[in-house]
Amino acid sequence: MSNETISESFRKAGMSRRAFLKFCAAAASVLALSPAEAGEMTRRLAQARRPDVIYLSYQECTGCLESLTRSFSPGIGHLLFNDISLDFDDTLQAAAGEAAEAARMTAMKKAWGKYILVVDGSVSPKDGGVYCTAAGKSSVADLQYAASGAQAVVAVGTCASFGGLPFAAPNPTGAVPISEIVKDKPVINVSGCPPIAEVITGALLYYVSFGVPALDRHGRPVNFYGNTIHDRCYRRPFYDQGLFAHTFDDEGARRGWCLFELGCKGPVTHNACATTKWNGGTSYPIESGHGCLGCSEPNFWDRGGFYRPLSTPTGHWSGAQVLGGAAVAGAAVGVAVAGVARARQNKKDDHKPDHKPADKDHDRNG
Amino acid sequence: MGGGTLLDFARGPGMEWALAILVFGIVWRLVGIFTLKRPKDLAEPRAGASAIGAMWVIISRTWPHKEFRERVLHWEVVSYLFHGGYAVAILGYAPHILLIRALIGISWPGLPGGVIAFAAGISGVALIALLMHRLNSPVLRKISNFDDYFSWLVAFMPLPTGLMAYYHLGGNYEWMLGFHMLTGEILLAWLPFGKIMHTILFAFSRGTTGLAYSRKGAPL
Amino acid sequence: MTTSDTAVLPGDPHVGVPDKQGTASDAERLDRAMHSFLRDFGANNAVYLESCVHCGQCAEACQYYVQTGDPKYTPIWKIEPFKQAYKREMGPLSPIYRLLGLKKRVTAAELAEWQELIYDSCTMCGRCTLVCPMGIDIASLVGSVRHGMEAAGLVPHDLKVTMDRAKTEGSPLGATPKVLKERLAWMADEHQVEIPLDLDKADILVTISSIEIMKYPQSIAALAKVMRHVKASWTFRSDGYEATNFGMLGGDRVGQRQATMKLIEAAIKVGAKVVILPECGHAYQALRWQGANVYGKPLPFKVLNISEYLAEKIAEGKLHLKTDTRSVTFHDPCQVARRGGAIAAPREVLHALGVDLREMKDTGAFNWCCGGGGGVVTIKRADPLRYRVFQIKMRQVDDTGAELLVSTCSNCRQTFDDGQAHFHWDKAAHSLLELVADNLAERS
Amino acid sequence: MVGMVDGHNRVISIQPAHDPSGAPGGAVARALLSQIAEAVDVYIHHYIPEIIDIGALGLSAPERAILDQALGKGEISVEITVAGGSQIEETQFAGVWRVRHYGEGGALQTEWIEITDVPEIIKSDVADMAAGLKSLRESWA
């Protein structure tokens, strides 16, 4: 638990207010705040207490944390040492085993009711939670306990936000997103596989400054997830002109044309990749010549192949078999209906004596 | 996850069911028609009658004879604006071409989005005009039934939903895209069961008359 | 649907008062009609009934709609009960329609109501067939509906009387074999031309329309002169002369068969290689195109309309004609031209005559019907409507400015005569055959 | 282009071979200049400063060149040596400042145009002054 404000922590670290302002500028830029909002954020951050943060991991791959530690602006150094008080993260800390568990209990109790709980990974309630346990506790029980002492929960990554890879069909562990378990605390989803580092830090800073941000229908901060990749893609004009790369090594690919045909999911993927970019603003997947996988959206792995265009079937079926079967069934029904109808024609003929069999149909159009 | 679910449905089970129903229905209807009895025409054909000549009417009836143009050409043109715009939007738009390629393996170059939007707009306006005509013309009012209006709706819906998806109107793009695909799938699934089946039957119907008349040596 | 909401033509008190034959109950009539409909729901009718997109263009080709603007005359609407019955009882989707009750059963009242549309206001001219974007042959559908109407006893009395007379007397106009013999003798005498009758063997069997026997007997003489000119081996047969087929027009399959078989049997009896049909539109339809189907196998002889025979002889150099320099317009009988395919032949004959042929604006396959075909000319109550549509034809003829109107159908001819009298028109229809007979050159 | 992380780690990014929007070059730069002029006008009359985040715009190289050319260099250039360094320059137009912050690795972190009399970050902070005063006095003692 820290009682000093963020600006005090800067000064204590030997940095002037200019460093703080610079940090705020970077944060405001990432959050795409207006000048007025940026000023307000600077004022609030200057007075805000450094929040305590507990970082827990369940069914995940640590990619999210890997991403987070590559945050350039605001730098992870600032984040960890000046902006927040990271009281527990079993991956980053030195302690292990029972010592780590004890440290965590201590940290949680100290800041009970006030800490921000950051979670990556999904949890597994299936079969009593046996598929994901730590120190004899199931992920669900652990999360429920940790969440009960939190002021808010930030679900980092697509696993925590939407179930992620563990949730993929056939979902053997019965994985569920954090929001399925935590119902009585605000849950901010920061999706992505992984999320952009600056988006994670930016979301935390926004919460520290302003509280829970405006969320989209998937519980994600609108600041980062308000636009689709397609909306902000520098290749968008090619899409509008119908200029597409057909393969990864054709002329269109070299000329930087749209990757829709190669399965880009940009049009339905909400994320900040096209504006914030990755690795300190270096580039993003489309800029490197590969279509968007849609990793920040629910079920992105279950939507057919990554290289299947958005307008085509997800392809979980055998077209030839199903359509062939439909054709055979259609033919059978057609023959049956016509057969019944023809039988009625003949039957009526028989019991009408005034129409003799010799009385044929003359009109060939009959 | 509402939007995602709709789009996933439209790209997955929705598409599968629509195509299966399309094939099933078309075969059902065609087989049901052509397994009915068909007496052979025993009359001696006029000298010089040919099946190729008979088939020509399948193409030639695409445009009205000059004797009828004065009375039918204006609405025929509106109808072609609808059909032509529809064809450009379906066959010229790259995402549609990709769908066709995914289904039957053939593809061709697409047209710019603006051209597609223009064609779809023309098509939609023409379709609205045709509906107005159907509602206002005493002849059409008399002969129209549920199929005419329902098929109109089914044919119309993909146009505004497609345009709205293209221009990112109507809120959530993903939902709109899914909805657009769903309207297309409804069109495919309904095609065999209503008048839209004329997309296939027109050739058989023209061909039937073409054969009968070409045997007689009568021009069509 | 009732007809009361549509315009009733002035001077037409009969519209909406259907004629009924016999005393059968409505249920029995409906049953008979449905039985007949079912028989006619073959693949060809099915594909037509399935394909209609309700575009309404057929109305624009129909003389009744064009002249009245009444939507009930839309051709495809005239067969609505047939279409409805098909969709409910026979089509591939019929189980769905029945299961969900989407198509109602056709009622006896509806059939009666449709009598006027099926008989009074359709000559089965087939003009709608040429405009239909789906190529639906609506005229043939009307023919199928007439089968059902006849079976149900729902034919206009005037037409039914004519049909029955044809069946019992062998001629719709009382031209019995006895009358035929008298007329042939009269013409042979008056025109000093030999008219062979009932020869045992002949290359050509010549047939005739009762209308010609009773109203235009000079055409018999004209024919005999032409046959003499080309030195043909030919004969009339008193056991097979009547070319008209009112059974076919009215929808009576039995009557149609009886009339057709008489001609076929007579032709076979005399060993004819060719049967010549007279100037009669529907005769061509009945024997040339439906004859073999009635007979059940290909006919062992050729069937020609007289105009085709004349053209053939001209082409063979056997028919020599004097030149007639008058201006002429030609009226194509629907069943010979549009629905028969014999469009070139009469024009070849006119060309050989050297006349100044002035085609009407809509000609050949696109001609307008005289309004008297399909048995309509016999239906008295339909006269006001017939006069109304006849005005199209008058206008078309007048617009050519031709001195002479020529045709190859005695039924058209009597319709023109009637219209001429009604409107005090200055034009009369002439027979192509008679024009040829009048211009036979001396053989060199 | 953003992307030179350091000498041996060149970033390859695929840029459009031509501007597909078909817009004539300089359209974005001209729009920016007009926005800047508007902001200066507002400041003169109402003393309301404005910040335009250039980094978020994703300017193309030609657009950036046109903008640089138009703004030029003014009389003041300030170097701030804190947390990776920053550069603040007044353009040839008084009150129009270019502010660039660099991260620890020297990469450009934020870039904006600020319309004000003196950019906030140049001013000395009272709390910092108090801390400085304290150490100044201690250095005497």
Strand content of chain B: under 5%
Structural class of chain A: alpha/beta
- The helix fraction of chain A, in percent, is 40-55%
Whole-angstrom Rg of chain A: 30 Å
User: What percentage of amino acids of chain A are in beta strands?
Assistant: 5-15%
Output the number of helix runs of chain B.
11
Largest sheet of chain B: none
CATH class of the largest domain in chain A, please?
Answer: Alpha Beta
- The CATH topology of the largest domain in chain A is Rossmann fold
How many helical elements of chain A? 16
CATH architecture annotation name of the largest domain in chain A: 3-Layer(aba) Sandwich
Describe the protein in words.
The complex is a heterotetramer of chains A (366), B (220), C (444) and D (141). Chain A has helices at residues 6-12, 17-31, 35-47, 63-68, 76-83, 97-110, 139-148, 157-162, 164-167, 178-181, 197-210, 222-225, 236-241, 251-254, 273-276, 319-350, and strands spanning 52-57, 85-89, 115-120, 133-134, 137-138, 150-156, 187-190. Chain A is an alpha/beta fold and 366 residues long. Chain A has two domains: 49-223, NADH:ubiquinone oxidoreductase-like, 20kDa subunit (Rossmann fold), CATH 3.40.50; 227-329, Cytochrome-c3 Hydrogenase, Chain A, domain 2, CATH 4.10.480.10. A five-stranded parallel β-sheet of chain A has the order 2-1-3-6-7, with helices on both faces. In chain A, strands 4-5 form a two-stranded antiparallel sheet. In chain A, a hairpin with a 2-residue loop joins strand 4 (133-134) and strand 5. In chain A, helix 2 (17-31) packs across helix 3 (35-47). In chain B, helix 6 runs antiparallel to helix 9 and helix 9 packs antiparallel against helix 10. Chain B has helices at residues 2-11, 13-34, 51-60, 66-92, 94-104, 113-136, 138-143, 146-156, 158-166, 173-190, 198-216. With 141 residues, chain D is of the alpha+beta class. Chain D has a single domain, classed as HupH hydrogenase expression protein, C-terminal domain (Ribosomal Protein S8, Chain: A, domain 1). The interface between B and C is large, with 62 and 68 residues.
